[in-house]
Amino acid sequence: MSGALFDHLWQSTLFGLAIWGSTLLLRGNSAAVRHWLWLLASVKFLLPFSLLYGIGAAIGITPAVEVPTDYIAALSVAAPVMSPSVLDVGQPASSSMLAPVLVGVWLIVSATLALRWFHGWRLAVRLSASTRPSSQGPADVRLIDADIEPSVARVFQPVVLLPAALPEKLSAPQLDALLEHEREHIERHDNLKAHLQRMVETLFWFHPLVWIIGRQLVDERERACDEAVLARGHDAGEYAAGILAVCRHCRSHSPHAMAAVSGDLTTRVRQILGGGAPVSLGFIKAFALTLGSLLVAAAPLLAGALEGSAQRREIVAANDGLLRNAQIEVREANGNDASMSVAASGREIAIRNSSLRELIAQAYEVSSWEVRGGEWLDVPRYDLVARTSEDLREAEDFDPAALRAMVNRLLAERFALEIHVNQQCQEPCGPRALRVAAR
To answer: Which whole-number Å values give the CA distances from 363 to 70, 186, 351, 371, 401, in the listed order?
Structure first.
C-alpha cells in the first residue's frame, strides 16, 4: 500500500512540475489555457497511473493479435513506471508506531479541512437562500443585504450574489463589467472546478505542490474571466475602477464563493490596465498540448493493455499445452437444449450440447456462419469432457482460444478432418499430424 502511494505521489509530482513548465512557456497566451493545464495537474492527484494501467490490463488486446516487438520493448520500460506496485510477502515487519501516528495525523488534518469545506458550502447555501431577485437586473443576479463581494454561489443552478448597497456606488459600466466577470465564472463552471481542487487539498494536504496548484488555479481563473470581460468590449479603466470600488465596499475577503476580487489583486489591476489581449495559442502549441494530453492518458492504458494481452497469451499457451495431450471423452448429446455451454474447473473442461460447427467457432473465436462445411457439422450434437494431467490456469476465466490444438486433434482422430484458416492448415494438421506423431 505504501509503495503504491509513493509511486502515485512521485508520478503526480513529476506531472505537476511538467505542467508548471508548460504554463511558463504559455505566459503570453490565454489564462484559460493555463487554468486548464493546472486543473489537469490537480486531477492527476485523483487519478493514479496504476488505475489507468489496470483498466488497460482488464481490457487487453485480443490474444490472436500479434503484438509487435517494438511495443513489447516499450512496455518493458513503461511498466515499472505505470503499473501497480507488487506486494512482496515476506517476514512480518517489526511493529512500529510511526505508521499509525502518520495515518492519525492525516485523518485529523483531512477531517478539519473537510469540515471547513462543508462549512463554506453551507454558508454559501444560506447566503443564496437569503437573497431576493433584482427588480431591474437579469434573472441570474440575486440581491443580498450582507456586505460580501459580488460572487457566484452554488454548483448547480448557480446565481450571482450582488450586495444590495453596491450598485449605488458603481457606475453602470462598472457594474456591467463586474457582473460580466461573475457570469463568466458560471459559464466556465468554476465553482465545480474549485470543489474538485478542495477535494485534492483535503486528501493530499501534506503535499506542497497541491497548494501551489490551488493558488495558480485561483489566479488563472480570475485572469481568464478578466480577459473575457475585456474581450467583450468593456472599458479597462471602468472595470479596474469597479474592482477597487468593491474593495472599498467590502473590507474583508469572503471565503465561500467565487469573488470579483479573488487572486492577486495588484497583478490583476495592472494586467487589466496595461496587459493587452493574450496571444493566440497557434496550431503548433495547440497540437503539442493536445497530443501531450492524449499521450499522458493513453500511455498507461496501452501499457496495461499490452501486458494484459501478453499475460493472457501466456495463459492460453499453457492451457493449450495441457489440453493438447488431454484425455477426451466424446458422446452424442441426449438433451434437447439447443444452446452450447463450456465449463472449466481444475483439471477438467466440459463442453455440453455442441455441434462441430459451434465447437470450431468457439475455439477460433469466429461466428458459426464463418465455419464452412456440410450439414453434418450441425447434426448430431456432442458432449465432450477433456481431462488434463495438471490444473488449468485461471480456469474460472477460461479462454476458448486454448481449445484449438485439442479441437484440431479431436477432429483428426475421430472425423479425419483438417481445419483451414485462410487456406492454411492449422496445427496439428489433421490425420497427417497423427501419422507424424505415431512415428
So the answer is: 29, 56, 11, 11, 5
